[in-house]
Write a structure and sequence with these properties.
single chain, alpha+beta, four-stranded antiparallel beta sheet, 6 helices, about 20% helix
């Protein structure tokens, strides 16, 4: 397994065009591998996430079973003439193996927190509809409901640091919430760079020939404690939640420094 960090040159128009479409980023990430891993759930998959750290730094993170070659991204969205390397790839397997129960880490996760709802007009037995959680309270609850099965627990704050009677007991913050609406291209063209419309004037029904895709990306920052290393390794390499092809599901870890900061 490998963890790769690529810095995007947002001063370039091609880079901004790339970042404006999850399909373009997905295609660019897949192009980094001669044979992308299978997405049937049998093994680790390629996960990616874009972090915008203020106005000066935009980073693309990739977790993958094989080492990526991002030369094409340097030419499109990096600094081709720079003497500095355009990306950094770390061996991830040793880090994953070293995880133990009780280890505490700072974490960042971008996910698509959804739930199934049933409208009043639906007949009994008809399928429910998937909908995004819209409030930070429900988005936090979505993650907390999955922590046990994902092999970790979000750290609770000491009582003296809790500002509210309820709902403020965890070291967890919803840092960003981004609704996205775009057209999914036809199946045979999804791996190619296709122009995207963020707000199509005439939505189409989703299906094999493309359609209107709506997701809500939510970024969580917090602290966690490893409870089941084997299960947690799977979370880090298979992703958490839906919409992984659109940049959701990737969790990264950072050491907790003295004083509780990451």
């Amino acid at each position: 397994m490998y963890l790769t960090r690529f810095r995007v040159n947002t001063a370039r128009s091609d880079a901004r065009r790339l970042l404006g479409s999850p399909h373009r980023v997905h295609g660019a990430v897949n192009a980094a591998f001669p044979t992308p891993p299978s997405r049937d759930g049998s093994g680790p998959r390629v996960l990616w996430r874009v972090d915008r750290n203020g106005t000066s730094e935009t980073l693309l993170y990739i977790v993958s079973p094989s080492r990526p070659d991002l030369t094409h991204l340097i030419e499109q969205a990096g600094w081709p003439a720079s003497d500095e390397p355009g990306w950094t790839t770390f061996a991830y397997a040793d880090f994953l193996t070293a995880l133990h129960p009780g280890d505490t880490w700072g974490f960042r996760l971008t996910a698509n927190p959804v739930h199934n709802i049933r409208h009043q007009y639906l007949e009994e037995g008809e399928p429910t509809k998937r909908a995004a959680h819209q409030t930070p309270r429900h988005q936090m609850r979505w993650l907390l409901k999955r922590q046990e099965k994902a092999g970790f627990e979000v750290v609770r704050k000491p009582e003296e640091r809790r500002l509210l009677p309820t709902g403020d007991e965890y070291e967890l913050v919803v840092r960003d919430q981004t609704p996205l609406q775009f057209l999914r291209p036809p199946t045979q063209a999804r791996t190619q760079a296709q122009p995207q419309q963020l707000r199509p004037s005439k939505p189409r029904k989703a299906g094999r020939d493309g359609g209107n895709v709506q997701i809500t990306k939510v970024t969580y920052d917090g602290r966690l404690r490893v409870t089941d290393p084997e299960v947690f390794r799977r979370t880090l390499t298979h992703g958490l939640g839906k919409a992984k092809a659109y940049g959701c599901g990737l969790m990264t870890l950072a050491p907790v420094r003295a004083g509780g900061t990451t």
